[in-house]
Amino acid sequence: MGTQMSSKMDRWRARGPVVASLLAVVIAAPSWAGLKLDFETPEGKVEVPNIEGADVLTGEAVSLAELKGHVVVIDIWATWCLPCVKELPGLTKFQEEHKEEQFTYVGLSVDAIETADDVKEFVEKRELNYPVFMGNREMMQVLGRAIGRGIQGIPTKIVVDRTGHIAFFVEGSPAVSKADHEEYISRLEKLLEAPIPEDTETALAD
Fold first, then answer.
1. What is the pLDDT at residue 30?
2. Which residues pair with 160 in a beta bridge?
3. Between 27 and 64, where is the model more confident?
4. Taking a C-beta distance cutoff of 8 angstroms, is the pair 168, 40 a contact?
5. Residues with Cβ < 8 Å from 17, sequence gap 6 or more?
6. Per-domain residue ranges of the chain
7. pLDDT > 70: what percent of the chain?
8. What is the pTM of this model?
C-alpha cells in the first residue's frame, strides 16, 4: 500500500467509527470477486432522503430534490477503492447511453474532505459525465438509515425510481461478475421503462 493511500486512509480513520467500518470492508473488497451480490430492497416503501452538495468539477449545487422524475443511482465510492474505480468506465457509458431517458448517476465520494482537489482532478481525468460531490459522515448515516442496515462498504449503489423511492441497493461492484452485471443492468432498464410522473412535487423526501 502506497504512502499516499495510507495517508488518506489514516485521515478517514480519524473521522469516526462509520468511516472505519467502511474501510474494513473496502480492504476486504477483492473477496467480492467470488461472491454473488445481494440486490436488496428496504422494508416498506422508502423515500430517499434529500442530500445535496457541490459538484467537485463545476462547483454547481447538486440536490436529489432537483432530480424528481429521474431514475437515480447514488454511487458511494472513493478514488482509492479499486473496485469502485474499475467500474467507472461502465458507469459513464451507461450514463451517456441513457441520459435522454432522465437517468442520472450521482457520485458520492467518501474520500477525505481535505482531498477534494484531488477528487476533482481524478473526476476530470476520468471524464466522468455525471455530478460527483463529497460525502460526509452525516450523509452516510442518513442514507444508511434509509436502506435499513447502514452503509457497510464501498462501492454501494442506492437506486431510486422515478417516484423518489428506493428501488434497491447493492453493496459491491456488479461489474465483478457477468451475472451480477446483467442483473444490475436489467433492473435499471426496467426502472427506466416506467413513465415519468406528471406530478413530481413530492417525489423525494425533504
1. 42
2. 72, 166
3. 64
4. yes
5. none
6. 3-192
7. 79
8. 0.82
